[in-house]
Write a structure and sequence with these properties.
Layout: no helix or strand
């Protein structure tokens, strides 16, 4: 609970990371732009 006048902490990950999420396994790619998933090897669309 926040006190009156304090900004609320929204938390969560930034939406700009969405393109780095592997559609096959859900892991976050370590490079930007992503090319392939380090966990499962799936090709990632950088666009």
């Amino acid at each position: 609970m926040t006190e009156p006048g304090e900004p609320e902490d929204e938390g969560g990950d930034p939406a700009c990371w969405l393109r780095r999420v592997c559609p096959a396994c859900g892991r976050l790619a370590e490079e930007d732009p992503p090319t392939s998933c380090a966990a499962c090897g799936a090709e990632l669309d950088p666009g």
